[in-house]
Design brief:
The chain is an alpha+beta fold. Helix content is 29%, strand content 22%. The protein has one domain: Sufe protein. Chain: A (Alpha-Beta Complex), CATH 3.90.1010. The protein has four helices and four strands, in the order βββαβααα. Strands 1-2-3-4 form a four-stranded antiparallel beta sheet.
Length: 115
């Protein structure tokens, strides 16, 4: 398959904020992907989408404090626990063939008073 045909999309339900979105990564070169975030009414995620265009392979392995996706999230005013930046990196990994598309989930167990 031609590398430019690799695409990965993730539907994200970020929780209590209610600003669901879709994150797509599409290979544009051998070691880079174009990022598109759509469907969110969150102003911060809208800004994040504007900051992210192309992600290269090296960005996948950068530490959080140096990672351009997380730097863009910070510059956009995203909340520290926002899951969208992680979804961007996961989609990029899959589109670059560095990971397999598998569901990612975390959930709260038990009732609120005992957590």
């Amino acid at each position: 398959m031609n590398q430019s045909n690799h695409k990965a999309c993730i539907s994200v339900d970020p929780g209590i904020c209610g600003f669901s979105c879709t994150v797509c990564a599409r290979s544009v070169e051998k070691r880079s992907v174009a990022i598109e975030i759509s469907g969110s009414e969150c102003k911060q995620i809208g800004k994040l989408a504007e900051h992210l265009e192309i992600i290269g392979l090296k960005e996948l392995f950068m530490p959080l404090t140096q990672n351009p996706v997380y730097k863009a999230a910070q510059a956009s005013g995203c909340h520290a626990s926002c899951v969208i930046p992680a979804a961007v990196l996961k989609a990029a990994e899959v589109a670059m063939g560095m990971a397999v598309a598998r569901p990612v989930q975390f959930s709260f167990d038990g009732d609120k008073e005992n957590v």
